[in-house]
TrEMBL record:
Cofactor: Mn(2+)
Protein name: Xaa-Pro aminopeptidase
Gene3D superfamilies from the UniProt entry: Creatinase/methionine aminopeptidase superfamily, Creatinase/prolidase N-terminal domain
Record family assignment: Belongs to the peptidase M24B family.
BP GO terms, sorted: proteolysis
Length: 472
């Protein structure tokens, strides 16, 4: 009987596994996610339970949602990519009746009718088979599931969103959150729980495992190919949106799901807006183009910025600012290794930029550097473009297998208090750096940074120059 049951389970699973063909084969393995859950459990205090919800779905247009993006913490711990789910990780083994487990995962129920409309669902059996989690139930089972939250010394959870839709089923994210709050007796978020959750996920995620480094390498490399192709394709008649589109095409050509953040593609004055996102200037003319664009590959975000002249040649002023930002970046690279305090990265960049701006006569005293360099030099990079990491002040130092950005910049908007020959020059150069014991590896080295090399690449032809489409 048991064999027969196993046979049918196998059939169902096989059916599920084969239900979608030609999927990528380089997703994180279930062993990776299992290892991360175990590492998470090791950092939990005694007699505690951690609760990790999926992200909410968000409306794009009336009854159409944005493409769903999973909560990176839940993805990291499970590989599950669907909404309406909640994971419980227990520090100790729980024995309820005949059942024994140290994690329980509630997922979206399979529903043939809904799946025709909104896509395949892994369901309970698929989650067990593909993600290797053994205790899995439908979200609808959570309400009657016995978890006595009062017996735990600590319940660890992340911020609870209060602006999500309620499909009234009781087992969408809204229903799961409500049920959790009632069961756990939570009326108000406990800052200590949020703090513990952040500390644990940051401690894990700030150090990349070899599997993660492989995916990061891929994400960053293919983003570099995209930057290089735009450098070749660029011309004064191109629109910001078209440059954005070339990035997007190349990302997808290499199998990336999309971009890790809204692309910043800004010419001239637009390049001086730090998080410019309209990308709607119809012509580049003879301006500088700042492109801060990175792919998301299997969850992992690249974050690469290149600044290039649309006509292929830097002016003297553009070159002077560009070289200064380049020098700042080089100075920071030199101290990229385990043990360097994180704040030294920004201090070093600011020092070089302040000296340079003084020399060019753009500022009168060192303090004014923050007018033209208003942001920091580095952030962690990974599943989130501004990835989680434990920054605890001046003593926090770089560690082996962290991945950070190094991204100095200078932005001189029109009407700045300097010679107007500098106006509307915005330059940022951003690379993705893997920290090693005594050195670093620049994962984005495939895209040129030296102004001479950029001009050389810009003089080459791109396959996109040959693309002929009808006029409309
Ligand atoms: Mn960045």
């Amino acid at each position: 009987m048991k064999q027969l049951f196993l046979f049918f389970t196998f059939l169902i699973c096989t059916n599920l596994i084969h239900s979608q063909e030609n999927l990528p084969t380089d997703y994180l393995s279930k062993e990776f996610h299992e290892g991360r859950r175990e590492a998470f459990r090791n950092l939990m205090p005694a007699n505690s339970v951690a609760v990790i919800f999926s992200y909410p779905e968000r409306v794009f247009s009336r009854d159409i949602n944005y493409n769903f993006h999973q909560n990176p913490d839940l993805y990291y711990l499970t590989g599950y990519k669907e909404p309406d789910a909640v994971l419980f990780i227990f520090k100790e083994i729980q024995n309820i009746g005949a059942d024994s487990y140290n994690e329980v995962f509630f997922v979206r129920e399979r529903n043939a009718a809904r799946e025709i409309w909104t896509g395949r669902r892994l369901g309970v059996e698929g989650t067990k088979a593909k993600l290797g989690i053994s205790t899995v139930y439908n979200g609808g089972d959570f309400k009657d599931f016995t978890i006595d939250f009062k017996k735990f010394s600590k319940i660890i959870y992340d911020k609870i969103p209060n602006d999500i839709t309620n499909d009234t089923s009781g087992f969408d994210l809204f229903g799961l959150l409500q049920t959790f709050k009632v069961k756990a007796g939570i009326n108000q978020e406990d800052p200590a729980s949020l703090g513990t959750f952040y500390d644990i996920t940051s401690t894990l995620r700030e150090i990349k495992t070899p599997e993660e480094v492989d995916l990061m390498r891929k994400s960053v490399r293919l983003s570099c190919v995209a930057h290089n192709e735009v450098m070749k394709a660029i011309n004064t008649e191109m629109s910001e949106n078209e440059a954005d589109g070339i990035h997007a095409y190349i990302h997808r050509k290499y199998g990336a799901e999309g971009e890790g953040y809204p692309p910043i593609v800004g010419v001239g004055a637009n390049g001086c807006i730090l998080h410019y996102g309209e990308n709607n200037s119809t012509k580049m003319n003879n301006q500088l183009l700042l492109m801060d664009v990175g792919s998301e590959y299997h969850g992992y975000s690249a974050d690469v910025t290149r600044t290039i002249p649309a006509n292929g040649k830097f002016t003297e002023e553009q070159k002077a600012i560009y070289q200064l930002v380049y020098d700042a970046q080089e100075a920071v690279f030199k101290i990229c290794k385990e043990g360097t305090p994180l704040i030294d990265l920004n201090t070093t960049a600011r020092e070089v930029l302040a000296n340079g701006l003084l020399k060019l006569g753009i500022i009168k005293n060192r303090e004014e550097v923050k007018i033209y360099y208003p942001h920091g030099c580095s952030h962690f990079l990974g599943l989130d473009v501004h990835d989680k990491g434990n920054f605890k002040g001046a003593k926090t130092a770089l560690k082996e297998n962290m991945i950070i950005t190094v991204e100095p910049g200078i932005y001189i908007p029109a009407n700045s208090n300097c010679d107007k020959k500098w106006w509307n020059i915005g330059v940022r150069i951003e690379d993705d750096i893997l920290i090693k014991k005594d050195s670093y590896e620049n994962l984005s080295a495939e895209s040129p940074r030296k102004w001479e090399e950029i001009e050389k690449l810009a003089s080459e032809k791109s396959t996109f120059n040959e693309l002929k489409l009808p006029k409309i």
